[in-house]
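Could you please consider the sequence and fold appended to this message?
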Amino acid sequence: MKLLIMGGSLIGPHLPQTELINYENHAKHYLPPPIVPTINDTRLVKQEAKVKRLESRMRQIHLRLYNTVMREHEIDNAQLVALFPMSLSGAAQRWFASVEPSRLHIWKDVAHEFLT
């Protein structure tokens, strides 16, 4: 099956300025032009803001859940601080390891650092 290029596009106006690429021993592929955001394109900014709000909300939920579960087991403040890194993984665990230990004496300090 062959695809025809007519007027700079692949049959129809939906793919303007397509480029024909011929891979050795493969079928021919047509690539649309790259999408270049304009100055007025604010979609990415809006999405980044949503991600930041979601990340912040997830930290709050993690702290609330951790605190609730540990308090139910009658864990005191010193134990809350000592056990908190074990509730983390990935980037959050790396973040905790990078925080100056002198800033994490009491549970209130740990919670504040985690949320900011």
About this structure: The chain is about 45% helix and 10% strand. Residues 43-115 form one domain. Strands lie at 5-6, 9-10, 19-22, 28-31. The first strand starts at residue 5 and ends at 6.
